[in-house]
């Protein structure tokens, strides 16, 4: 033995993430899960929430990094650990243009969520507008059988596609009991279909049964509103809690689609708890307005945008004293008054006289943006004729 001290250092095997135990992996996944969840309501001093008090955080669902799909695709072991906890799979993201490996996981994730309530998001990885219409429709039809099997436990369903023609036909796919559904949204970029089907109601409407007693939010394009809510109106009339409706028209790729205004007002008037109504870009067939409307809308917050003809006048006459109304890029033909105290007018062409409807209203808050027809004379008249304390906000007139 020599006189010098010696220390033998053993060789340490390189560490690998695969050496993490299932318990450690689960802790990591639970941390990622709660990183993607936000409290539905913030309460001062609260630091912990029950899972039912949390919502999934908004994010780019077309991204390949969405939890839990990104870690589940790393390896079979990670996927197995994640699959054993239904809590992770309550948001089901279906990218219809994914490869076969991702599409297989969609079916698996629906089963992994067990009997929990789920949110379904149907998206695309690519939103290039040069895609084939029929191809997108075929991809949607391919995944719909998976969705309808779990319709009874869906809390929300949202489609975000390119073409309106790709939306699933509610009359074909959405049948039976959707007793937990509180939000249904059909979003697209381009209107590419026409309203051509006007089937007879006799003997056919009873075959379309879609029960949504808890539905509160509906966003839909004009064509599908006509098909699913006007032609087959029984289900929406029985959606007693429906309080938020958005009916819009994406960018038209052909001639504008015309929706019957009278039947639209009739359907909306049958919703006693309607609170928020947004109507954008639709072209209505509407008769000349004579006297009061035969329909009454309960909506308290109203947004009308891009409506021509006398559609705005028909809506105004049907409203039962809403709290506020915002009118943007609309025709004011036959508009003789505004039925609420808070009115916002944006980008109203100067051909429409603003003074007559303003003079006949009891507005206390008026906001105007890009309204060249509003001038100093009208402002002075409001001071003398309008209700006392009227606040006027003007921008870029």
From TrEMBL:
Name of this protein: F-box domain-containing protein
Organism of derivation: Hydnomerulius pinastri MD-312
């Amino acid at each position: 033995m020599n006189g010098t001290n010696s220390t033998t250092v053993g060789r340490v095997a390189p560490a690998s993430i695969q050496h993490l135990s299932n318990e450690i992996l689960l802790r990591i996944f639970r941390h990622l899960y709660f990183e993607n969840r936000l409290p539905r309501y913030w309460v001062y001093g609260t630091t912990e929430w029950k899972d039912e008090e949390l919502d999934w955080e908004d994010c780019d669902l077309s991204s390949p990094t969405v939890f839990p799909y990104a870690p589940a695709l790393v390896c079979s072991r990670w996927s197995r650990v994640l699959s054993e906890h239904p809590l992770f799979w309550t948001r089901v993201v279906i990218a219809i243009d994914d490869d076969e490996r991702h599409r297989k996981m969609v079916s698996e994730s629906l089963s992994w969520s067990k009997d929990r309530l789920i949110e379904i998001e149907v998206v695309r990885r690519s939103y290039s507008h040069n895609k084939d219409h029929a191809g997108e429709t075929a991809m949607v039809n391919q995944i719909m059988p998976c969705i309808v099997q779990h319709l009874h436990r869906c809390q929300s369903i949202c489609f975000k596609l390119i073409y309106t023609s790709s939306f699933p036909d509610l009359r074909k796919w959405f049948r039976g009991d959707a007793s937990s559904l509180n939000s249904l949204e059909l979003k697209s970029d381009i209107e590419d279909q026409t309203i051509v089907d006007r089937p007879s109601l006799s003997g056919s409407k009873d075959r379309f049964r879609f029960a949504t007693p808890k539905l509160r939010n509906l966003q839909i394009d004009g064509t599908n509103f006509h098909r699913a809510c006007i032609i087959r109106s029984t289900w929406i009339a029985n959606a007693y809690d429906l309080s938020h409706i958005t009916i819009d028209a994406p960018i038209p790729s052909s001639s504008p689609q015309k929706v019957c205004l009278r039947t639209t007002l009739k359907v909306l008037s049958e919703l006693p708890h309607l609170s928020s109504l947004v109507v954008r870009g639709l072209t209505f067939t509407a008769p000349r307005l004579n006297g009061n409307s035969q329909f009454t809308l309960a909506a308290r917050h109203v947004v009308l945008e891009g409506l021509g003809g006398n559609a705005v006048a028909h809506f105004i006459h049907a409203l039962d004293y809403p709290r506020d109304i915002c009118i943007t890029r609309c025709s004011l033909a036959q508009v003789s008054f505004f039925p609420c105290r808070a009115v916002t007018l944006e980008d109203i062409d100067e051909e429409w006289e603003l003074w007559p409807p303003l003079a006949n209203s009891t507005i206390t808050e008026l906001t105007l943006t890009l309204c060249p027809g509003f001038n100093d004379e009208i402002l002075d008249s409001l001071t003398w004729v309008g209700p006392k304390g009227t606040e006027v906000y003007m921008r870029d007139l």
